[in-house]
Amino acid sequence: MLEFTNITLFLFRGFEFLGFFLFLLLLLREIFKKSGGRIFELLSCAIFGVLLEVGNTYIANTYYYSDIFLVNILGVPLVIGLGWAVIIYCAMLLSDQYNTPWQIRPFTDAFIVILADLVLDVVAIRIGFWSWTIPFDQEWYGVPFENLVGWIAVAISFSFIIRFIRTLNPKRILTKLLMLFSPFIAYIGLCLQLAVYGIITILPYQINHWRDLMNFNFQLDFTLLYQPEVQLWKGIVFAFIIMELVNIFIFVAIRYRKNYLRKFDALSFWALTSLHIFFVFALFASGVYIQYPIFVLIAIFILIVHILLHFIPYIDDLLKTRRARKTQELIIENSKKIKSVLDEKLK
């Protein structure tokens, strides 16, 4: 972590202000539109964000937050929970523009969300927002792979339950109960996904240490996740998950290109973009880029991808218009040639 300076304090306060501001802006937008369902989804996501952070910090004890944040709940900065709400909610708004079947959208949401974390986390830990128990040179530049998978699982869990609720009759008691307990159901889904990921990545290590299993010496120990062999498998599985999310998004962009809604949501775009830009700014303001110049390339690449995801429907529409125009020009040109040939024959 960097030495605490005025710049560091400025970044702390800036991040906290930005998180509160974006959340309130989204909430006020939905209140103004009198969209009760959307207000519920945003508030539910905020509750889910706080719940998962409190649960994770107390269960795993693999990371902890700085005490510099102004507003905290059980040791977790409130802005983190609101940040989860902003990122996931805006990711869902973006996925909706692609107008795909609701069962696919949680996976596109997850891809949008993980893009944000690939830069956010590595910069945040070097400023001191939070700290992991592994050194900066391990796994994803000091961020455990299970945390990155956790971001994916968070998006899938919450997005799936919310999108499923949207298909139900809102007047039924069961639907109302699902709405009420959606943050807790999503948290259970998150835990199950992380458990599966943990089993898959730890299994090769346990097979190589089968004597411990035969002697029933197995104990739940989170430090096992940081054994070099387990870290290797965590990275391999994470890379595979990312590749599959990319494949899903490419499939969506090709298969459903005729169904794009083309209803650009400016607020969700600027909310997500401002978070990306803030951490790019923090990368330079804190001086982290000097020690890790590779972060600059990663941040710029991800920012470009993030912007492209928002504008793919409109780029596709523009290309279609150009193709149609060229086709029309070609038809007119051929028609003129045919007419000239016919005129010559008639003469």
Fold and architecture overview:
The radius of gyration is 24 Å and the shape is globular. The model has no long low-confidence stretch (mean pLDDT 85). It is 76% helix and 3% strand. It has 347 residues and is mainly α. It has one domain. α4 crosses α8. It has 11 helices and 4 strands, in the order ααβββααβααααααα. The longest helix is centred in the C-terminal third of the chain and has 53 residues. The chain has a two-stranded antiparallel sheet.
Structure summary:
The chain has 11 helices and 4 strands.
Which spans of ≥5 residues are poorly predicted at pLDDT below 50?
none
Instruction: Identify the strand order in the major beta sheet.
Output: 1-4
The number of strands is: 4
Overall SS class: mainly alpha
What's the mean pLDDT score? 85
Roughly what fraction of the amino acids lie in strands? Answer: under 5%
User: What is the end-to-end distance?
Assistant: 88 Å
Multimerization status: single chain
Give the helix proportion (percent range).
over 70%
Biggest sheet details: 2 strands, antiparallel
Element order: H for helix, E for strand: HHEEEHHEHHHHHHH
Radius of gyration: 24 Å
Number of helices: 11
